[in-house]
Amino acid sequence: MRRKVRALLVALVSSLVAVLPGTPAVAGTVSDYSEFPYPATTYSEPYRGQFHFSSQSGWMNDPNGLVYANGLYHFYYQHNPHGLAWDTMHWGHATSPDLVHWTQKPIALEPGVHPGTLFSGGGVVDKANTSGLKTGTLDPIVVFANTNGVSVYYSNDNGQTFQAYDKGRKQIEIPNESRDPKVFWDAAHRRWAMVVWSDQGGNGVNIYTSKNLLDWTFASRYSAPWLFECPDMFQLPLDGRTGQQRWVLTSASSQYVVGSFDGTAFRTDWSGPQQMDLGTTHAGGSFYAAQTFNDVPDGRTVQMAWQGGNRGSTWTGNATFPAALGLVSTPDGPRITRTPVAELSSLASETRSWKNQTVNAAKGDNLFAGIKADTYEITAQFDVKGASAGRFGFDLHTRSDGSADRSVVYDIAAQTLQGKPLKPKNGKVELRMLVDRGQLEIFADGGKYSLSDNADFDSAADSQGIRLFADGGKVKLDSAAFTRLNTSWGTSQSTLAGNLKGPWHAAGGSWSDVSGGKRVSTGGDGFYISASSGADGVYQGDITLDTARAAGLTFRAGASGAGYTANIDTSGVVKLWRPGKDIAAHSTPITAGRTYHLKVQTVGPRIRVWLDNGSEPVIDATDTAYTSGLFGVNAYDGTATVQNLNTGSAGFTAFPAGRWTPRGGTWTVTPAGLRGNSAQDGFYLSDRSGGDFTYEGDLSVTNGTAAGLTFRAGADGVGYTANIDTNGTVKLWRPGRDIAAHTAPVIEGRTYHLKVRTDGSRIRVWLGDGADPVIDATDTAYTEGLFGVNGFAAHTLAQNLKVS
């Protein structure tokens, strides 16, 4: 969506001025990416949808880059996480296993980290790696944004972090005002296609094609006065027949036409568009900028749109409930249908139903009397043949004084539902309503009628009634059903990384999501327990003490946390304990604010504990109290943060050494290896030293500037470093001097193998599997010292470090 969206949202924004947070909208930095700037919430605030997605806090508008990738649905969206009004667009991110239960994730694209104008765009999953961007086992997520041209961004870790391809340079240059690229796979021609809104001679879309998602060729232009911003283009089978595919082209205001696409040009014989949704289809209204998911595994075309009319004390805007789209034949031509996805049923609890009833205005009876509900679904079918009532429908969220928050009304004479045309079908009117705390969605006529609305429903106990009514006579009710819908929130982890299964539960302490993982505040012992259990194996994670006296890994535990815990303690020990007994301890300095890596291995009664990636355990003990149980974490007396909780032996693979020590930056361990995060120079140093040697390893700059191998260093990291630099060099340097450099492309997110060989003052550096060194230099400043790794203004990854 355009930066001038403010002009379209004056009324909405002005109503929020009084509640804007004091923090202005800001861009981020590499050192705090991926940002998670959200205060804790239970998602139970007034008007907060319980099964409609809204951002945990901040402003949201257009859906962006909707994809199903690597087992999850990814919902990206235009986002200002630092205020309640539109400003400084980021790409927010949420994931779901089923299109219903959404989990807020850290920021995906962030100004200051990712170049370009991060306005609305699309995304795809490059399953065949046509782009060549894939670096690991996961399919890349590739997304597109920018204005007056298109830039490419991609993720190889299932959306956790994104890199800018070609440093964000526009891969398509458009001289006119343009934005909102949407990309899709054109199976018939085996290539990618893109539609981008531009004002070249008026509203319309430019169509481009590509074999690899990176190099694009202009194919054609489709112009139409109604086709303003946020276009989408997709195929639907007419009447469900796979051999009768039609192409649909939509605009932000939900207008659409049906036609054909020959791989180059879109064509339609329609003289004008149809309206897909009958809500307020303008920016800030109840249905705008809808986008469909790419790569839905069962082949459905699923759509979500922005609803700008919902707001609360900490958030603005929500998304419509996901709807599956269809295309059906009518006497007037093909028409879109919208139907809530079937996964909604996972929220269902209480259900009541009625058949063959008469709704009689004279009697004033109410079949729904006695039902109190806040979030629910109603389906009903009425027979209007011979009806004497003039109107009928439902009053929603009624009170004892007879008032209601919203009425859904069918006018028999006018043949309208909510004032919008809806003709009876064989004398019947059927409708379906989704009622949430701030949203009302109405569907009828097999989904050809769709009306999305925002409504501030009063959730107080005296405001949860439902009234089925008829005015001026009778109407027959063939059938009706009421289904209570539970909340969809709180089923997964936002920032805690690892392979332990949920649901998690707290047994003491207050646990919340922060950028660095899961943070606890507790007075005594506080446990956070997963649903994963085990007997023998490896369990590891990263622990940071803030004000807490101790924190650690809990295992073989019950639901209360009673089991074993291996922790770090500010009294200066690593300790293995269980309720009532300290089993073993190892004395070592423990500093608040520093991240420590703990690893535990259990084999029967034998329990060993490693600290900070050392080769030998610091604790080797036996105890027979617990043989199996749940995995979790523990903290005692204060605040602490835990992250990267993993079972299994995967982690940081390096040469034998004792404890590793950070000198600047934050260093954590994931199954992929050692991750570093530093605003300037950060070092992670082993206790092993050498003079002449061969030292090699795999390095990657996830985001930022440089990562390298450090050697012949002091305890502060001062020594030599051979690094890869995303400015396009392999460099050998020491503090105060760049000794030598070799020009080579270094791409964010790619893994590079570096090898260093020292012979006295001679230092050689190899890149990859090359036979010859790319650097061959001499320097006499340092003759021996410690081995380690370095990161500079970057998120880095190091793995497979070897010394010989």
What does this structure look like?
- The protein is mainly beta.
- The strands form 8 sheets. Strands 35, 36, 37, 38, 39, 40, 41, 42, 43, 44, 45 and 46 form a 12-stranded antiparallel sheet that branches.
- It is globular and about 100 Å long.
- The chain starts with a helix and ends with a strand.
- Mean pLDDT is 95; it is low at 2-22.
State the secondary-structure class: mainly beta
Number of strands: 57
Largest sheet: 12 strands, antiparallel
**Helix count, DSSP H or I runs of 4 or more residues:** 2
Q: What's the overall average pLDDT, rounded?
A: 95
Shape annotation: globular
What percent of the residues sit in helical stretches (DSSP H or I)? under 10%
Q: What does the oligomeric state look like here? A: single chain
The radius of gyration computed from the alpha-carbon positions, rounded to a whole number of angstroms, is 30 Å
Detail the poorly predicted runs: 2-22
The CA-CA distance between the termini, in Å, is 56 Å
Strand content range: over 45%
